């Protein structure tokens, strides 16, 4: 009896490796070296890349449990869009200078496209809410936590009560129980999101605080895309583009949004914000820290 193979297409390949014929194994090795290639290649192109026949490609995808090569390619595209860097590496012959210029151009394009749909009025509205909040909670997992920490450090110069989640040594429930009505919660939902994020957003949506969502996804793109936006009743929603010509997402627009938001918090804080900054600078001098 042939075992049923399931899971992501890479997991299926690994599970099938012991039973593959030599030509199928050569095809599997080619795909595992560059797992993103199957998402953009035709069956013929993939066969040529692995030096096997089209019939081998057909047998191979069926052995993985797919009805056709197109079905396998769709599964690969869904995995690629979900964000794992290894699925975005390609066998490109682009030189380093060309790759550098492509990255710069894409970063600029991401910023321009993102802010074509984000108004200064929206940013100012959130900035004012931050200044009036009892506490600001900023949530980010994996790569997104770097932006949560950055935004916290920037606005923390102006507002005294800023907390980044998750905190080391604590469960999320222990922190969420402290969120109050006058608080503001900022959630970064950047690919690849963790599985618990939709449940967390659902709890925040049922909670007392106002929320802002910063996301790089506008809709579901496959079975591995976590539908975060649908779970959070956010008063502010900012969609940023993170498209990249290489394996790693380009977060230029995310950082730009954080920078502008922090700048507007400072500019709209008025005399109170300047007094806090002066007090911090006096302490820097007193402690000889900088």
Automatic annotation (TrEMBL):
The cross-references to Gene3D superfamilies, in alphabetical order and at most eight, read: Glucose-6-phosphate isomerase like protein, domain 1, Winged helix-like DNA-binding domain superfamily/Winged helix DNA-binding domain
Q: Which PANTHER family match?
A: GLUCOKINASE (PTHR30514), RPIR-FAMILY TRANSCRIPTIONAL REGULATOR (PTHR30514:SF18)
| Domain HTH rpiR-type: start-end pairs | 7-83
Note the SUPFAM superfamilies from the entry. Answer: Homeodomain-like, SIS domain
In Swiss-Prot or TrEMBL terms, this protein is called RpiR family transcriptional regulator
Q: Spell out the Pfam families in the cross-references.
A: HTH_6, SIS
GO MF annotations for this entry?
Answer: carbohydrate derivative binding; DNA binding; DNA-binding transcription factor activity
Which superkingdom is the protein from?
Answer: Bacteria
| Gene Ontology BP terms | carbohydrate derivative metabolic process
Coiled-coil stretches are: none
